[in-house]
Amino acid sequence: MAELENLKKIASQVRRDIVRMVHKRQSGHPGGSLGCADLFTALYFDHLRLKSPDFNMDGTDEDLFFLSNGHISPVFYSVLAHKGYFPVAELSTFRAIGSRLQGHPTTHDKLPGVRVASGSLGQGLSVAIGAALSKKLNADDKLVYVLMGDGEQQEGQIWEAALYAGSRKVDNLIAIIDYNGQQIDGAVKDVMPLGDLAAKYRAFDWEVIEFDGNDMQSVVQTLNLARKNAGNQKPQLLLMKTVMGMGVDFMMGTHKWHGIAPNDEQLDNALLQLEETLGDY
Amino acid sequence: MKYTIQNHKDTRSGFGDGLVDAARENDRIVGLCADLTGSLKMNAFADAFPERFFQTGISEANMIGMAAGLTIGGFIPFTGTFANFSTGRVYDQIRQSVAYSGKNVKICASHAGLSLGEDGATHQILEDIGMMRMLPGMTVIVPCDYNQTKAAVKAIAAFEGPVYLRFGRPKVPNFTPAETPFEIGKAIRMIEGSDVSIIATGHLVWKALEAAENLLKENIKAEVIDITTIKPLDEEALLKSLNKTRCAVTAEEHQANGGLGDAVAQLLATRFPLPLEMVAVMDVFGESGTPDELMEKYGLGSSNIVRAAKQVIKRKNT
Fold first, then answer.
1. Are residues B205 and B153 in the same domain?
2. Which of A24, A152, A161, A215 suits a disulfide with A125, CB 3.0-4.6 Å?
3. Tens digit of each residue's pLDDT (9 = 90 or more) over B61-114
């Protein structure tokens, strides 16, 4: 359908932005960013009920999104810019001195679209729970979303938060895990296996849905299903299978491109694989 | 004015009572507690405003993150746990999700310092002021008695920005006037004097007043300054006093490293070099004992302040 095709086109541009941003500064995290480009595109250009381009910190009567694994800032910045929160041209300042586009997202420099600093892992789920409780107190029926990494599940704070959300039935909260199976030191199953993550969250009284995060139709449908489930006395976990580096063949499926930048030749190769659809910054 | 003991009360009760009063006036105030509701005297708040109270269980990191999230949508979260678990245990959560993110969270910390008593060094945090004053944008408040703590709660509720509020467990002299508005960042000159400035905070303010009275018997006129706010430090008040007395003693229930003494030393070294002595814990951990035994053993009594005052006056005059 046309809508899906349009989202795929946007995702292609987001992927171009990611590799160009990281290449320009020779610094940043392309792998996880590329893997999550479809999710971010679906969230910001289809799913989330936003007041963009207007931004205010309280986010009253709009859906809220938090990025807990802040190192995938390139994909976040790209969608925020294309959504109109700040000029697309500003993407060229990624990680440069004086930029609002810090290595990891921050509210410190007042970048519209960001509501909490992240980068030190494990903290975003707790913040999202707080924001979800704030919505309940304000009788605001919009939802709160948070994306975490799979390696990030090794942080203890995640499980404090998972316990709280399940036990207290924070059912306006939708957490998503980017399950790409890779972390800095290697495969998650080698570094510190997570076991049956879905079963673990279910044991914490969460509703768990597994889906393919690199199939746009599956992403859109899963998000819609989760919205329909909201308010059913359980927080929801969307366990999103992705391929790290998705869209650039030589970056795919390996932890090696977690946090390194392509050289000039690799950039050219990557861009040949990614159609320019909205215009490069 | 002359300060006299009105009664003996714990500063944590000042927090609990102040929180209920503040919450009655401001319906955006919410409370979070990590399984220490009774110890923090938050029961009255939890009973009066059950929908605004969040029991997190023994999960301090999650509590701090939730507090940061609750500010989004306009609430004013007050977190409550022991000072140790309010700072050292959750330092990175405070640093990233609260301080760097500029969130309007009030971190309220009880059982600070040696006067926690018998629980021993695991719980007697003596480094929290240092940790919190290092964070950019963090306001650090250490009231001296029940009345001042209660007033401070109302003041921080009305103040926009992250705050660390430190108070303690034991019943101590309650001597400042009730219902006095608390001014964040303002030092209070308790006694006027010309020979030495005794700069004290928290439980040590009363001991500084005792020391000044004893010094006066030897015709030494000490000026006593209550530092209610460690950060931002009331530099002008301190420089004004030191311009007259030309020497200072700091007194605090904290390590000399990183605490009020360090803050005053930094001010003096960079703006007005003068002799300074510190009454503080000197790079050791505490232990079990009664609060009084511990304060004496670790050198935080009024006699220690008297000795330090005489020593610093001697240095000034040589």
1. no
2. A161
3. 999 999 999 999 999 999 999 999 999 999 999 999 999 999 999 999 999 999
CA distance B28 to chain A (A): 10
Residue A111 touches chain B, beta carbons under 8 Å: no
Helices A216-229 and A2-25, packing angle to 10 deg: 110
Contacts of A63 in chain B (CB under 8 A): none
Whether B29 and B152 map to the same domain: the answer is yes
Least Cα separation, residue B230 to chain A (angstroms)? 24
Where in the sequence numbering do the catalytic residues of B fall? Answer: 60
**Looking at chain B, how many residues does it have?**
318
Cα(A58)–Cα(B293) distance, rounded to whole angstroms? 49
Residue of B nearest to A110 (CA): B101
Q: What pLDDT does B1 receive?
A: 64
Q: How large is the average pLDDT for residues A43-56?
A: 97
Say how many CB pairs under 8 Å bridge A and B.
Answer: 117
Please tell me the total count of domains within chain B.
2
- A176 DSSP β-pair partners: A147, A238
Q: Which of B51, B65, B68 sits opposite A157 (nearest CB)?
A: B65
Averaged over B202-220, what is the pLDDT?
Answer: 98
Report yes or no on B180 lying in a domain: no
Range of the domain at B211: 188-316
Instruction: Write the pLDDT tens digit of every residue in B222-258.
Output: 999 999 999 999 999 999 999 999 999 999 999 999 9
How many angstroms away from the CA of A221 is the closest CA of chain B?
28
Query: For residue A1, is pLDDT > 70?
Result: no
CATH of domain A2-272: 3.40.50.970
Cβ <8 Å between B65 and A129: yes
User: By CA distance, what is A161's nearest residue in B?
Assistant: B62
The domain locations on chain A are 2-272
| B194 and B305 assigned to the same domain | yes
Residue A2 has pLDDT above 70, yes or no: no
- Residue linked to tokens 């921050």: A106
